[in-house]
Predict the structure.
Amino acid sequence: MGVEIRVEGLTKSFGRQTIWQDVSLTLPAGEISVLLGPSGTGKSVFLKSLVGLLKPDRGHIWVGDRDLPYLPEAQLYETRKLFGVLFQDGALFGSMNIYDNVAFPLREHTKKSESEVKRIVMEKLELVGLLGAEKKLPGEISGGMKKRAGLARALVLNPEILLVDEPDSGLDPVRTSYLNQTIVDLNAEIGATFLIVTHDINTARTVPDNIGLLFRRELVMFGPREMLLSSEEPVVRQFLNARKIGPIGMSEEKDVSELEAEAKQGHDPGKLPPIPPQLMTSDGRIRPGQHAPGAWCAAHGVTPPPGSFVDDLGRNWVEEWPRYVASMAPAGGPPPGAHPGGAPGHFPGNPPPGQQGAGAGY
């Protein structure tokens, strides 16, 4: 199971430039969280701070019971072993084949025999669908395969926390969908705590259990997926709907005169789009971090936009969910590991539309 991360009052500056200030959030153990924000709002800086590569000006990062910014060097080094990181471009060594790239952390940080290294590397390559490509160089494979090779390398030390920096960068929408499916399947398989930085709205709307948004040097909102997808907060609504109307401008934020001009012209921010069903695992299992569709809205008296939680086959998962849970439950109990309420999925023998395992060729 993954480790909970609690961030309290975190502030980071470079010289006189404040990147963000007083950021507080909790990444629940074993759940998938997404961090959004316009370009230049410090999302990658936040990831580097979480893993201890950058020290904040003030604040706390609790990884379990360890306050990471204040750890002695030796303890910081040990705590970093809890993390796996997938960089934007995969960050593979160009002179090494895929096998040696994935094996590198094991050879660098452990004393395992080569036979044990091989077993682990092949296991992780199989997990991300890259068996058969281990002898190829990074220059001989596609962008999607590079991402998955980087993901395999991030997994070889069995991390309890996985940081993923813009997995969609450089990928077309189809390959991004395949990679999203791989991430969801991995979360179900290894139970790690995931934090994904992305600009991809489809990823943000369908993959995570929680969403956060950075803007104007602060964390505007962080919470369950349904909370943000039903939010009337102007910047959240603008970003998640990819609209021009709102506080975000071409160069970071709009000034007061621009916002006043928009208001005078009576621009309508538009209706909130339906909240889609959450992406399910390839085999239909329930991830522990998932919640019943519509559960947050119901618990907080929020009416979701019309058409929410309806899949491509026209099934309303608020209505279908109880039958799904019953169909998946072993005799005498709920599905193993199911969070109370669970998540949308498919009935056995009826694959969810558009959800497939990771393809080997992208």
Q: What stands out?
A: The chain has two domains: 5-223, 225-260. Confidence is low (pLDDT under 50) at residues 336-362. The domain at 5-223 is CATH 3.40.50.300 (Rossmann fold).
